[in-house]
Write a structure and sequence with these properties.
The chain is an alpha/beta fold. The chain is 28% helix and 28% strand. The chain has a 7-stranded mixed sheet, with no helix packed on it. Strand 18 and strand 19 form a beta hairpin.
């Protein structure tokens, strides 16, 4: 197996590899170009993002600055929004569903390192994929750790550190992040009423 194949499959690998260095350099080039665009270059930003990522929906928006390791290992659904200073460390696949919102400074990490100090000192590392379902809102400064799966219809409170999987249909928060309560029909009724009030002006 190549080092890239080892990386993507979650095995120990070394990032000191020509293919990975080339891929990382390309991601740095595209994120630099993206981050340097001004507020009038909407179309150009989208071009850079679609070249950077493995796949995206038609409608995607990320506020600069954005950083990632490779980009090609990030797969994003329809209607994605990420606020300022998003970081995605994508040594393994990061899969994001439809209608997902990231608050400012959300970080998604797939990279991790051996616990044994001597092995870690050799530079060997590995990764675990992250999956985020549909209709998810991650509050600002949320950190998603390697190997996490977040279900659909989930709200994660600001400043949370997600160390365990989060099921669908809940509000969760904290460090470590834990489920606070389910999202209920009462929530739906409350917010639909607010929406109706807004529509009436």
């Amino acid at each position: 197996m190549t080092e890239k194949e080892k990386m993507l499959s979650g095995k120990l690998y070394t990032a000191q590899d020509k293919e990975l260095a080339h891929d990382n350099k390309n991601a740095r080039r595209l994120t630099r170009l993206f981050n340097q665009t001004n507020e009038d270059k909407f179309d150009k930003r989208i071009v850079y993002l679609k070249e950077l990522f493995g796949s995206t929906g038609e409608n995607i928006w990320i506020e600069p600055a954005f950083h990632c390791d490779y980009g090609r290992n990030i797969f994003i659904g329809e209607n994605f929004y990420a606020n300022y200073d998003c970081i995605i460390i994508d040594v393994c696949p990061v899969t994001i569903g439809n209608h997902v919102f990231f608050g400012p400074r959300v970080c998604v990490y797939t990279a991790t390192h051996p616990i044994d100090a001597e092995v870690r000192a050799t530079g060997l590392e590995y990764g675990k994929p992250v999956t985020i379902g549909n209709d998810v809102w991650l509050g600002g400064n949320t950190i998603i750790n390697p190997g996490i799966t977040i279900g659909s219809n989930v709200v994660i409170g600001s400043g949370s550190v997600v160390t365990k999987d989060i099921p669908s249909g809940v509000i969760a928060a904290g460090n470590p992040c834990r489920v606070l309560r389910p999202i209920t029909d009462e929530d739906r009724k409350y917010w639909r009423k607010k929406q109706e009030e807004y529509m009436k002006g």
